[in-house]
């Protein structure tokens, strides 16, 4: 059934405008019916305030579109909340099994590699070590990040939400974090000295966050990101 509202005004125009504002639609999106016309006033109603009642009925297609938007919005919020919710012990066990199966097969192909899997209620941490493992880091961690994405997909098998995997190889992430923090400090000093902004090369969300976190308490510079993935960059500017 189409949604209808009844609104009042001193004139039909005023009542219609109030109704459109309440429904948040334009005039062509509703059917309008005048319930009480301002011209039909009796002798005894002359001294009473003029009130015109108008019924606005939302056209069916608009109602359906709005309903779909609300449903999509609710589903999106529900999906995000589900993605962020802690894993149950059963889910963690399943994730570990999926990761273990993959890494066991991988280690047979890379004999000089060992692995360790640990977890909490939010993340599963995978650490690879050994000569063969080092080959999986790639240029500035590109292969490592791609492998982390792959592991997340594998770990999510038979689950109704995505597994959150943090992969590290040969302690690369800790070393990379230190070098990025040093870079952030150095570039911040350059921006303060020259007054000119500095744009870094494209980085992953993980690495951009390291830069942002390092400079977030600075009183003299601020950071923000520009561009689209996977070419999103951090910009450092003077406050």
Commentary on this structure:
Helices cover 46% and strands 21% of the residues. The chain folds into three domains: 4-81, no CATH class; 89-170, GMP Synthetase, Chain A, domain 3 (2-Layer Sandwich); 173-238, R3H-like domain (Ribosomal Protein S8, Chain: A, domain 1), CATH 3.30.1370.50. The model is unreliable at 38-48 and 74-83 (pLDDT under 50). It has helices at residues 12-23, 60-84, 89-109, 131-134, 142-155, 172-194, 205-215, and strands spanning 4-9, 30-34, 52-58, 114-119, 124-129, 165-169, 198-199, 221-226, 233-238. The longest helix has 25 residues, at 60-84. The chain has seven helices and nine strands. The chain has 239 residues and is of the alpha+beta class. The strands form three sheets. The chain has a three-stranded antiparallel beta sheet with strand order 1-3-2. A three-stranded mixed beta sheet has the order 4-5-6. Strands 7-9-8 form a three-stranded antiparallel beta sheet.
Topology:
Blueprint (H helix, E strand, L loop, with lengths): L3 E6 L2 H12 L6 E5 L17 E7 L1 H25 L4 H21 L4 E6 L4 E6 L1 H4 L7 H14 L9 E5 L2 H23 L3 E2 L5 H11 L5 E6 L6 E6 L1
Helix pairs in contact: 6-7
